[in-house]
Amino acid sequence: PAAGPVVISTWDSGQISNAAAWPVLEKGGRALDAVEQAAIAIENDINCCVGLGGNPDRDGHVTLDACIMDEKSNCGAVAFLERIKHPVSVARKLMETTPHVFLVGAGAQQFALANGFKLESGKLSPDAEKEYKKWLKKAEYKPVINIEHKQSKGHGPFAPTRLDNGDFNHDTMGTLALDAQGNLSGMCTTSGMGFKMRGRVGDSPVIGAGLFVDNEIGAATSSGQGEEVIRVAGTHLVVEFMRNGSSPEEACKKAVERIVKRDPERAKTFQVGFLAINKQGEVGAYSVQPGFAYTITTGDGKGKVIASKSYL
Ligand code: SD4
């Protein structure tokens, strides 16, 4: 018998994504549709951290990375996409209507426009504008650990994800769903690391790094310093650990340990968090630094935020 439905999303802002995914799953709908709804909801939320409301690159442009993967290992991804509100939906369109899996930059935007997506203004959200001006004063190019690991204070359900000092506690949302038919799908969407180098792409749109789904075994997504995740093909690794018998939490822990082992000293300076679900509907997470969390929705349809265990 199928274990679903269940939906999990990274971070406490996962409450917003899960609330949009749940009605699809509750009605017996497809996990793929559920995770796309999760993406649309969070990309629409101007108070959150991903989508066009996110922080820009160091030249002042918001550039989006996203991907989606279904139960048949179909996948679609876009990166360095500008002025399009729903990158995950563009990725899905690419997956379903072309022989390709990955489009970037101007080509991705051209594909989106040809498929009826609207060109948005490109103006920064008021919060992002403020943050960018603040950043420009020093214009320091270094990925900031604090953005990732500071505990979000006072976040009730649907509270803004900006911290009191204006930072986000993250810039990426990943959602994994198991539907009533027992099928898995996932998505990952991001504005990427704030004030990144122009053209920089992280792990989030990279299949096997920011997201991986294997319908026989399970699925995983990640958040944090994308470069570290790409180096170990992080979410593919998590799914392979599950294939070899690890629980979702153990699998996430082993992937974190693989990253830390490379340079334990340096690992003190960045955050990576993995989130996973297996075919039985068991879920788990693990991160390098404290402060990572995820939201799970199942049974009663209420999103529950759970703090991840961490290496440090
Ligand atoms: C990236 N993984 O672009 C993303 C950033 C992130 O929470 O997860 N922020 O590297």
TrEMBL record:
Keyword set includes Signal: yes
This protein's GO CC annotations: cytoplasm
Active site: T172
Gene Ontology molecular function, alphabetical: hydrolase activity, acting on carbon-nitrogen (but not peptide) bonds, in linear amides
Tagged with keyword Phosphoprotein: no
Marked site positions, Cleavage: D171, T172
Record key words, sorted: Signal
Gene3D superfamilies with a match to the protein in the record: (Glycosyl)asparaginase
Pfam families: Asparaginase_2
Name this polypeptide is given: Asparaginase
Species of provenance: Dyadobacter jiangsuensis
